[in-house]
Fold this protein.
Amino acid sequence: LSNPISSSSDHFGDPCYLCRCFVYYTDRDVAVPTRPYAMAADGYDTTEDRCLATCRRDERCRAAVYGMVGGRKVFTCEFYEKIDSRKSPVYSPFVNIYIKRASCPLKDDHFESVLMIDADDSSLKRRVKHEKQAYRRNPFEG
């Protein structure tokens, strides 16, 4: 048996250790126009557990989004102060929402924090594009 704490993690390759500290929705993203307050400086070098550990340590973070977004960035890790529960989560393949639980007994000190930067418009642009595609008319239907 491999220990998820000591083994090296990669993108969705190892079981998520800190996921138990969050309510999470697979294949879901935050609805437009909610904007993250911060994001990982380099999403490609970020793992799911490192993203979640950073959210747990940050007082402002109430939810994190981690997933494969394609393009030049490939992966994203975004941090949100709040999510509109009436509009979110919305379907988006390969992206997951993690909402922080009030308490969790798991330790996260063995995960390095992600370098956070102020969020740019790339998250909003990505989600607008996905929402347009989701509501696009199917040309094969009558």
